Amino acid sequence: MGFKNWLQTSFPINEEALVSISSEPIPNHLKRWWWALGGTPLILFLIQAFTGILLIFYYVPDPDKAYESVKYITFTAKFGWLIRSIHRWASNLMIATLLLHMIRVFFTQTFRSPREFNWIFGVILFLITLIFGFTGYSLVYEQMSYWAMKVGTGIAAATPFIGNWISDFMKGGSEIGQNTLTRFFLFHVVILPFIAILAISLHIYLIRTLGVSTLEFKRDVNEPKKTFPFFPDHFYTELIIVTIVMAILITLALLFPVSLGEKANPNVTPLHIKPEWYFYPVFRWLKITNLEVGILGPIFFILMLFSWPFLDRLFEKYFPGKEIGFWIGAGGLITINVFLLWEVFGH
Ligand code: HEM
Question: Is the CB of 101 under 6 A from ligand 1?
Fold first, then answer.
């Protein structure tokens, strides 16, 4: 028996099924990058998983050793600075491309029936990605990490009714210390990846079963609906995007390698505590309100996101054709950007 026959007998692969799964017809408008943007955060997620696993080889989740281990990765381990820089930059790009993907889905109204669940899985993925960012930032255990944990757990404590419980759960006690770091580490490398993989699988399952929404551009109306096969056409497009994303990441890592601040010191509060840019709008909002009232803003925003497909349906039912959803979305987007810029340029 030849090798191929032996393999086919001992590990049978149904080639026809493989071809039919991979050659799924994709609507022609997915040739436009902004329409197929969802693939980019997926690529970045895979890069994060790969570089993250490499970082765990040296990272030590212990308040006395974490900072030193990151220092070792950055200055001593071969290519450690590169892997760490790519991991940091890819997290930023993942959030940026995720936001673009959400904006595209929102303004093309493709969260509408039958894609409500896909929007909801998307919102879960968005929140998980933000928590990935927050927990990852804290693991470095530099001054900013420590004080970001302090501010973050303080904000969580202001949540009505369950705030203290959430804050204690995050800290694993009354103070930030070993338990906090263990928990943040556990979430960052086990629990969040698990939920993310589950949510991405469900998201993709629904895309495959419901299909990507079709949109007719004015000039396409009279043309017959064109499609192209996922494999090899779309697969190659994604490969090109992988190449471009890698080139951008390596350029950013070379030009702006990730730095290391001072070691965490619970007794010295830094003059300016700044979170990562994607928390700027919330941070600015909490600065101009008092915490007890301010916390209701992000909670309200998250609830709006989850229920958006159903709210939009109500708007359409009671105010048909007025595009209320569009105007709320546009207003929300402008406000978020104003808050972001305010935090960038304000004090
Ligand atoms: C890791 C995160 C995510 C990944 C990997 C992902 C992946 C994808 C992919 C590959 C598509 C196919 C069409 C396209 O590429 O645009 C898609 C569609 C979709 N995504 Fe995402 N997505 C993510 C997060 C989100 C978020 C945050 C939302 C919204 C809150 C969202 C909502 C949707 C919806 C409603 C569709 C169907 C759109 C249509 O058929 O036109 N996704 N997603």
Answer: yes
Q: Is the peptide bond before 224 cis (omega within 30 degrees of 0)?
A: no
pLDDT at 32 over 90: no
User: Does 105 sit in the ligand 1 pocket, CB within 6 Å?
Assistant: yes
| pLDDT the model gives residue 61 | 98
Q: Is the dihedral of CA 261, 267, 271, 273 positive or negative?
A: positive
**What's the average model confidence in pLDDT over 59-88?**
98
**Burial category of 257 from C-beta neighbours within 10 Å (exposed 0-12, middle 13-18, buried 19 and up):** middle
The structure tokens listed for 91 are: 């997290």
Residue 81 one-letter amino acid: W
Which 8-state DSSP code applies to residue 323?
A: -
| Domains of the chain, residue spans | 27-216+223-269, 274-347
Residue 40 CB less than 6 A away from ligand 1 = no
- Report pLDDT digits (tens) over 305-323: 999 999 999 999 999 999 9
Q: Give, as one character, the DSSP assignment of residue 228.
A: E
pTM, full prediction: 0.94
Residue 39 beta carbon below 6 angstroms from any ligand 1 atom:
yes
The rounded Å distance from CA 269 to ligand 1 centre is 40
Give CATH superfamily name and number for 27-216+223-269: Cytochrome Bc1 Complex; Chain C (1.20.810.10)
If you average pLDDT over residues 324-332, what whole number do you get? 97
Q: What's phi and psi for 229, nearest 5 deg? A: -75, 145
Query: What string of DSSP letters covers 29-54?
Result: GGGSGGGGTTHHHHHHHHHHHHHHHH
**Segment 231-246, tens digit of pLDDT:** 999 999 999 999 999 9
In the predicted model, is pLDDT for residue 327 greater than 80? yes
- Give CA–CA dist 298/300, Å, rounded: 5
